[in-house]
Write a structure and sequence with these properties.
By secondary structure, the chain is mainly beta. The chain has 1 helix and 10 strands. The strands form 2 sheets. Strands 1-2-3-10-5-8 form a 6-stranded antiparallel β-sheet, with no helix packed on it. A 4-stranded antiparallel β-sheet has the order 4-9-6-7, with no helix packed on it. Strand 1 and strand 2 form a beta hairpin. The radius of gyration is 13 Å and the shape is globular.
Length: 116
């Protein structure tokens, strides 16, 4: 039977970013995939991470900056980026952003492997 998600679960994020998980470990007990809407303020940044999951980031508003071992990519509204499991990445939003993150398998703090 389909699961109708009528309201997301707000999960802890880094700094002032608000994470509203619609599907995933915290909201639906789904370990295979997570889908969350992110709202991050201007100047937000998080530590680098080397996650065990693939992460697709779809930008709705603003710009998400993704730093990686090969450089830096600015992802703008209507664009997406795929960071594969095992790639070291660091996300930031210099001007703030609204975006959707899809992780396969689902996001878990234990499998994000953020730098200290």
């Amino acid at each position: 039977m389909p699961v109708h998600v009528t309201s997301p679960v707000v999960v802890p994020g880094v700094g002032d970013k608000v994470i509203r998980e619609l599907v995933g470990n915290a909201s639906t007990g789904t370990a295979d995939v997570s889908v969350a809407r992110m709202s991050s303020p201007p100047g937000w940044e998080e530590p680098a991470q080397t996650p065990e999951f693939d992460e697709v980031t779809v930008v709705l508003e603003g710009t998400v900056v993704v730093e990686h071992d090969g450089g830096r990519i600015e992802v703008k509204p209507g664009e997406a980026i795929l960071a594969r499991a095992g790639e070291r990445v660091r996300y930031s939003t210099p001007q703030g952003a609204e975006y959707v993150a899809i992780c396969v398998p689902a996001f878990s703090p234990d499998t994000a492997h953020r730098d200290e």
